[in-house]
Design brief:
Length: 334
Amino acid sequence: MYNSKIIGMGKYVPENVVTNEDLTSIMDTSHEWIVERTGIEERRHIKKGDGNTTATMGVKAAKIAIERAKIDKNDIDLILFATLSPDYYFPGSGVIVQHQLDIPSCPAMDIRNQCSGFIYALSTADQFIKTGMYKNILIIGSENHSGGLDMSTRGRGVSVIFGDGAGAVAVSRSDDDKGLLSTHLHSEGQFAEELALIGPSTNRWVPEILEANDSEDISYYPNMNGQLVFKNAVVRFSEVIMEGLQHNQLTPDQIDMLIPHQANLRISQFIQRKFGLSDDQVYNNIMRYGNTTAGSIPIALTEAWEEDKIKSGDLVVLAAFGSGFTWGSALIRW
């Protein structure tokens, strides 16, 4: 059985910076209100005419990851694209990436597990590589949230949190003992509608929406039960990190770098305190980018590596929790 190893990483975020102060001109909020609740100071939003979509941002991140991996794009055996905001309702964005990278033909799979999407994609890649089916797999997490947010006082509880951006990793077959140690995935569908976009959907399809013609219909926008999400997140983050450590007969004091999904800085700080980790052992960038959902972990992982915060032999722990509810962890010997 082979090991799977991350051999290249890349990220892309739009140039358009939206600060908390910028939001005060379009909704009843304040810099202090947002920072106190989320830790976010600014985020990136796609700007009309800048050429960015969920897929094109993914391609930009992917090109960097492929170059750093020192592989040819035509050596990619599979594309896994994690997103909740594909360019189209269908087809998925993975096939668009395959075309824009000018890869003649390779399988492409979209993974719809929202904030946990990158962990689910990493686990999927790990299984394909361990069985010997594929050698080089490209994983992308990319999101275009800004076009679908309620940018008014009514929607501020959600809209101040999310940003746009993409991260990508190239995962390859490895014969040494470094690489992905294990992944651990979970879901709890009874809370599916507590963090969701209810419509438009096949439960409320286009003719019904057009007939309603109701500008006050908030089901067009994401909704979140913030308190319930926070309460569940701190529990599930802790459980799934410990599950991974115990599976590999490791302890929290052996973690060199924890990269949590950038959902809320207060959640990350809670987990940091619970595991007794220092600021140097946890990487957060939500202050600059907001919550980029499936993009958040690969963006943060790329930045941590670029800043030399991850070194050979380090134990790197990735963990996510989000809509579904779904959650998961991945342990990597770098």
